[in-house]
Structure formats: structure tokens, C-alpha cells
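yo, Diguanylate cyclase is done. seq:
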Amino acid sequence: MFQIKWDHKKLIAKCNNTIEKVDLLVLLSEKIENESPTYAFELSQKSHVLASQENYEEGIAKALYGMGRSSWIMGNLEEAASYLLDSLALIQTLEMVEYEVKALNVLGNINLYLQIYDQALAYYLKALKIAEYIDSTYMKAKLYNNIGEIYKELHDYETALQYYTQSLEIHEALGPESSKSIPLSNIGCTYWALEKYDLAKSYHEKVLILNQGSHDKMGEAYSLHQLGRVCHSVNKDDQALPFFQKSLSIFRETDDKFHEIDVLIDLHTLLLESQHYNEALAHLNRALKLAEETKTRAVIAKVCSHSVTAYEHIGNDEMTLYYYKKLHDAERQTNHYELEQRLKSIITQIKADETSQENEVYRLMNLELNKRANELEKKQSELYESYHNVKVISEVGQSITSTLDLDKVFHRVYENINSLMDAAVFGIGLYNEEKKIINYKFYMEEGVKGPGFSTSLNNKSSWAAWSLRNRKEVIVNDVEKQYPLYVKKRLQIVGTQMESIIYYPLIVEEKIVGVLTVQSKKKNAYTQYTLDTIKALGSYISIAINNAQNSQKLATEIQMRKEAQQALEAVNNKLMKLSELDGLTGIPNRRTFDEYFDFRWTKAQQEYSPLSLLFIDIDHFKEYNDFYGHIDGDEVIRQVATALEDAVQREGDFVARYGGDEFVAILPNTGSQGALQVAEVIQQNIQNLRIQHKHSQTANYITASIGIASITPNRMLTKEALIKISDEALYKAKEKGRHRIESIAL
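structure:
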């Protein structure tokens, strides 16, 4: 780039005057824009300063156009639109028709990026009309291609291919080879959308060679991106990844934010599918940052939508909700910006018509002056009415897309509908896709809210059902004559019979969310303008309903997950408790004893307090099991455990099953004398059970031997030593004939 700038500097130095410099700067800007739009903008900006100093209007117009085009390529759409509209006004005044075609084309491109397709088409068609008039074959080829882009975005691929083919045929007739790379590339993209991946690949490979041969860096990057998409679609991610990475590198080098965002989104998708979550999210964050830099609401919304999906996929509810709210705000701002653009367009038309009116009145002073003036005045009045209506729609749209309360949405729309059209009836039905039912939650007739009702999507006598089945609006100005076109028979479901009706399907991203209806008692109450108003209003209502339903769905899912988490925690707590208790007796087990003994030993050391440990063993239990069986043996274990719990009842005292027929008791703050008293109670409780044991060599009923060890812990003795001493005491009791208590004090 340094060498290019140096060469340009030498060329500019050779210019004889300022006007020559301006014209050269404009030319250099056009040539370098695809390689470095940032530098192209600098050149156009410099030419604008010089042209303004010389009051060189043609140069000013060209410079503004160059600044607008460079800004568009860099993704600064609002700035681009501002420069281009200023340029267009001057271009039209100076009758620079070739530049008028160019400016209209780029304005169409901006609206295409903003997804304002009707406005984009209007700009393209106006440019095409002028291009045909001045026989600009090259611009006709570009415009055919761009009109094809609109149809591709609207998924009408057959029509899109027709326009791309027209563009390609003109480019092939004109030459050079590189000029046909854009329609070829778009044909490849269309085949990719149609899932004809082999065809798509062959077109993109051809375009890549053309772009590399002409040193078109942006074109090369675009081709690499599309080849990456094709590879990813056929599960060849190892090939897709380098295509994406190389494309991304070039787009960053050329500062093409929009295409960089597209590549980042595709990279995130690939990485998300391969479970490289951190990398995938990093690419999305970069895409969102770029989108916010461009201030393009539609692109911000697109990135947020992918973020919602990504975080939902990895189970992060908090971030899912965060990006869902950002998506909601971006969609609301997108619709607001679209209406702002429409308002600007109407204001521009009003001003143009005011000027036209003045000129027309002057020219026709003596030729039907009054008639022409009245016609122009009527047209101006219609434009002001149009301005008012769009403003109302904008305000209503902002209001309803900023709330998630459907009742507020319905009432806000109804409050304003009659200022826009005759609406004796106004209703909104919500579509339940699972049940195939249209539920009218809000239905107003002559200011009175009617009861809710519903109808099936398969109802052949329902206007609303026809509208949703066919995804088309219904506009009828004489119901009696026109109803056979839509319904089998004319039924009166609710209220008074209406003569003019409109039904409009509410659709968001191919998903049907409901239907909107307005109805009048008068015939011929509605026009195409009324339908256009309903469409504008319907887009806001669709988003508001979708946002509310998605929010409710997300809230429900989060609540369900919380409840599931709580249930899981309860089960875990139960399992934890069960893991601490002996399954047969219900008293603490060996594991719990170990933990509690460790705690009591440490505490006794810290407080220098006595601690006693009792080991209890059922006498001749093996013989009992052998003679009476394991079922009765288990019952003995349970009853002995209960007898132990009854004897050891002080706060802090502890009894556990140590294993088999052996039990253990911990007596904090208890010396050998106190421990002996507790042991005697234990022995008496077991004796009182009077469980018969004919095969005992000690007594003819169940008895127990008990070993006691008592100590005031110090650092010289370990808790394991106390266990060993207690066990030795138990051994002594058994050795001396069982059914005894032996104690060792330290």
C-alpha cells in the first residue's frame, strides 16, 4: 500500500490545477476501493475538500459519491446513505445521469444490506430505467445482478438465477473476463442455497481464478469464503477451515466488516459443531463488536440470534437470556430505522413535489392553472397523510416491540388503528402450530371487546385459515362477490356482517405466529395503500408476538430447569444421607463414625476434655445365625441397634454399626466412670430384649460384651491408639467369658 500511495502522490503532483487534482483523486479512489476502501475514502474526502474550495460542483458530487461508496464497502451504512443522498441531490441538479445511476445503485445496495427490500428494489428499478435510457450496458448488467440478490434473499431462487444470467450474458458480451466474476459468484451462491453443492463448487472455483488473475482481493476473499461454505455443507470441515481462515485474513486486511462478520459466523458454526466452544464464542463476540461498529441493526440482530443459539446449545441460560434481550432490542431498532428511512424518502418526495408544484404552476399559469394546482395540492396532501401514517406506525411499532405483555401490544395497536383506516372490526389471532388452531385472544367490534374464539387451520370457510395456509394476505372490498375466491361458504361467526375485509398473516423468519384482520361495514373501504399500512404494522406486531412468546417459553424452560435442579439436589441430599446410614439398622455406619470420631478427637484435644470409646459385640452371634438363620439374625441386629440408641441419648453422644455384629459408641466429655455407667445401661437394655439364644455358651438369650477406653487426648497419643485400646478391652471381656464389661483408662 505504501508503494501505491507513493505512486499516487507523484501523479497528483503532475496536475496543472485543482480541478485536475479533484478529477484524478476521484478516479484513483474508484480504482483502489476494492483493495483498500479506507484509503479510497481518504482520497474522496480530499477531493471533496479541494472541490469545495474551488466551488467545483461536479467534483463535489463525485467526491460525495466516492465517500458514500467507500463507506458502504467499509460497512458504515448510515454515513454512506447520508453522503449518497447529498450526492444524489447535486447530481440530479447538474443532470449527471451516469452518476445518478451509480448513486441509486449503491443506495439500493445499502437498503439490501438493511433488508429493506422494497426500498432497495425501488432504487434499482429507477437506476435501471435511467441506464436503459442512456444505454449504459455495464450498469444494466450490475443492476440485473443486484435485483437478483433481492430475490435470492427472499428465497425465490429461480427468479434470482434469471436475473444473474441476464447480468452474466451482458458481461460476457462486454468483457473483460473479470467483470463477470460477480454474477458467476452469485450463481454459485444460489446453487449452494439450493443444496446443489457440486455446481456451487465449480462456479466458485472458476470465480476464484478470475479474481486472483485480476488482483481483486475482496473478490478473492469472497470466493474463498463461499468455497469454505460448500466444504462445510458436505462435512469436509478440514478443507472448510483453511478457506474460512484465509478469507477472514483478507477481509480484515481490506477492512470489509460485513463480509468479515459473515465469515466469523460461519467459523463459529463450524467450531460449535465440533465442540470447540471457547473459539466459537470468541468469533461470535468479534462479529458482534464489528456489527455494533457498523451500527447496522439487522446485522446486530443476526449475530445476536446466533449467540442465542450458541449459548442455548451449551446450556448457559444466563447468557442465552442476555443475548435474547439484545436480539429483541436490535430487531426493534431495525424496524424503527426502516421506518425512519421511509419517512426520509417521503419527506424528500414532499420537497421534490413542492418544487415541482411551484414550477408547474408558473409554467401553466394560463393553461388550466387551477386544475393542475389542485391536482398537485391533492398529491401533496396525500404525501403529508402518508408521512403522518408512517410516523404513527413508527411510534406504535417502537412501543409494542419494547414490551413483552401481549395485552399491552393489542391495546396499543387498537388505540391507533382507526386513525390509519376504517376498522369497525380489529382482531389478532395467535396460531398454535402444535394443535393447528387459530385462537383469537383479542377481537374488537365497534369499540367493544368480543369473547375469545378459535378456528381450525383446516377450516375451509375461514378467511384467516386461508390466509395462513397460503401465507398470503386477503383483501376483499365486496365480500358477497369475492368470498368464493377464498372460502367455501360465507359464515357469520362473530358480530355484524362486514363488506370489506383484510386478513394478513403474521410471520417471523418463516414461522407463522398469528393473523391480523381489519374489517369495514362499507364496500370498497380498502386500497393497496391500506394493505401496505397493514404490512408495515404487521411486521411490528409479528416481532412483538414472537418476542413475547419466546420470552415466555424461555422463562418456562429456565423455571423447569431450576425445578429439575432442585429435584436433583433433593435426590442427591437423600443419597448423601443414605450413604451416611447403615442400610439394615438405620443408625450411622462405619464411614460416618470415622468422620465423627475425627471431629470429637480434635475437639477433645482443643478443650482438653475426656473422651470415651465403647466397642459392643453381640455374644455368640455366628451360632445364632447358623441355627436361627440370617433373617432372624438381621432382626437381632436391628433390635440391638435400637437398644443402643435408647441408652446413648445425650447431645453429642454417638452410636454406630461398626460392622457385622459389632457396634461402637462415642461419649464426649465422659471419663471412665461415666462410660461404665452407660455400658451397664446398654447391657441391661440388650438383656431386657430377652431374645432366645439356645446355642449361646453364655446365656440362653442374647447378650453382649463391651470394651471401654477412656482418655483425655494429648499430642502424644493418636485416635487410632484409642480405637486399638478399646478393641483390646472388648477382647478381654470376651476372653473372660463374655456378657461382661472391661474398661481401660489412660
